[in-house]
Amino acid sequence: MLDSKVKFFKALGDETRLTILSYLLEHSYCACDFSSLTRKDQTTVSKHLKVLVEAGILKYEKQGRNIIYSIKNEEIGALLLSLGIKDVKPCCDGQQVSGVCPMCKTEHRTNTVNETVDNRVEK
Predict the structure, then answer these.
(1) Do the beta carbons of residue 80 and residue 7 sit within 8 Å?
(2) pLDDT for 4-62, tens place per residue?
(3) Are 71 and 57 in contact, with CB atoms under 8 Å apart?
(4) Where are the domains of the chain?
(5) Start and end of every HTH arsR-type domain (predicted)?
(6) Angle formed at CA 50 by CA 44 and CA 53, multiple of 5 degrees
(7) Is 68 exposed, middle or buried (0-12, 13-18, 19+ CB in 10 A)?
(8) For a FRET experiment, which of 64, 106, 111, 112 has its CA 20 to 30 Å from that of 97?
(9) Among candidates 37, 32, 28, 23, which has minimal Cα distance to 105?
(10) Distance (Å, rounded) from C-alpha 106 to C-alpha 8?
């Protein structure tokens, strides 16, 4: 029991993971979106997502070739909100990003990060 609590709080001890969680408190995202949102390479993002899943904070589901991540349940979401994680401001919030996601082929050149992700999730 103590081990799972240690994992949970260790998972919250990283700026990139807090950034990921701040977006996921709004809605679900494809794993491929987090490289643009965090300005980290896909391998690094995948490691962070794995830590959050293993800590029991996130869940995921496969939709075709995409993996969609979300907060595991409402109780965890409420706890994260009470900790102020939604207020974590990512370094690239609203900035222009460039490139095409290798997984979903979403074009990221002309939209802000928020517009790109909103469009991607609506599809």
Answers:
(1) no
(2) 899 999 999 999 999 999 999 999 999 999 988 888 999 999 999 999 999 999 999 99
(3) yes
(4) 2-91
(5) 1-91
(6) 145
(7) middle
(8) 64
(9) 32
(10) 32
